[in-house]
């Protein structure tokens, strides 16, 4: 009898233990926001005196838009990165509005607006050069199967997202909990459905819902995770970070034009170095830049260092509010694969100049399959590369022309970057730095002294040749094909 009772107790205790273990495991796997007894996400309203989001730092046009919408009886909130950033005392990049008015209704309310997007319909309200984006509350696709409004690919990727819903639905389909905070202009409160405020306090980046499903729906969320982790210096929740290393290949299905935009957001927002390190760590870099990834694996030349130096310089410029060009970054990112291909072609007997040209074109064309580089940038990438050889060789007759070349400054910066990353370019960078600082008279003197040095070197070469003649030497072209 005793042993029977013990067995029952052991069974009940064991069962309870397993039940709780499973619950804890499931909870740590997916982030389900708190729900009330009806299963709806629980809404927490944080009054003005309990949050740091001050109206003073909110864009006046964004406030105008929400006021006008609420004045016409619609719900309207500021949402996303702007509220997150204001919570963290950062300067928001843009102010996004969300509402229960349909895009057409919003369009009708603002004469200064236009409807955009097919995959994701939005309204842009324009105030001079400034634009406020207004999106209608979206709902989860599980709630709607109409083909017109919602479409998925075989891998689960959302191809069209025009399923509208309530504010709660809208919060659930946002990416991270910290991006799902809503600011209500009527009473200046913040509305939180996903414990986003807790995550802001602890510096946690947490995907809403089941991470694997959400990454399949939109693989760009993996890049966004890296971007926000770097920008906010947040730690990814274990369930949010864990699938990323296995799902990087999903990015191959994303249109190349969208990935180009994402790369700029990743690498040109002032946290490029950290972002690059995280992209490599989470094995996403190779999906974006396969040829460069290959060079990095081979520990080729100074590939990694050149990219780091380019990103350091970009981060510095962004912090100083100076302009940055994607061309410069892409020139650095693709330099090593281009050089490798050029030397392979030269090994096959192609002369240096055509080898460089062919390699430049091929590497850029191949990269465009992954991140479409608009022509206005790829042309500059090629200019920067083309000028490298000429800047290295410093032919006296070409100096003035080079200094006036429209892409001289970018090419010179790139040359200096190569030296900083450890390439030995016989102090060419320093020479070009000095010549730019001189007045016309001293500049001519510097060019003359370069020409004199060149003549002496030529003379020495000729004498050496005379001492030790070899057939064919006199007529063979130089390595670069330039002299
Ligand atoms: P920032 O503007 O600083 O880059 P952000 O969070 O505002 O950051 P946006 O791209 O402006 O990013 O997007 C605005 C909001 O839209 C996000 O905060 C998020 O709530 C939602 N969002 C954007 N992209 C996605 C996505 N791919 N999946 C789910 N929600 C998204
Ligand atoms: Mg934003």
Structure characterization notes:
The protein has 483 residues and is α+β, with helices and mostly antiparallel strands. Among the domains are: 44-206, Beta Polymerase, domain 2, CATH 3.30.460.10; 288-448, cca-adding enzyme, domain 2, CATH 1.10.3090.10. It contains 22 helices and twelve strands. The strands form three sheets. Strands 1-10-9-2-3-6-5-4 form an eight-stranded mixed beta sheet. It has a two-stranded antiparallel ribbon with strand order 7-8. β4 and β5 form a beta hairpin. α8 packs parallel to α11 (256-267), α8 crosses α12 (272-281) and α15 runs antiparallel to α16 (326-347). The radius of gyration is 29 Å and the shape is globular. 34% of the residues are buried. The chain binds adenosine-5'-triphosphate and magnesium ion. Magnesium ion binds next to loops.
Hetero groups bound? adenosine-5'-triphosphate, magnesium ion
**Secondary structure tally: strands:** 12
Q: What would you say the CATH architecture of one domain is?
A: 2-Layer Sandwich
Structural class: alpha+beta
Q: Please list the strands of the largest sheet in the order they lie side by side.
A: 1-10-9-2-3-6-5-4
Number of helices: 22
Mean pLDDT across all residues, rounded?
Answer: 87
The CATH topology of one domain corresponds to Beta Polymerase, domain 2
Strand residue content: 5-15%
Reading off the top of the CATH hierarchy, the class of one domain is best stated as Alpha Beta
Radius of gyration: 29 Å
Low-confidence stretches: 23-29, 468-483
Please bin the fraction of helical residues: 40-55%
Distance between the termini: 103 Å
Tertiary shape: globular
Sheet with most strands: 8 strands, mixed
Name the CATH superfamily assignment of one domain: Beta Polymerase, domain 2
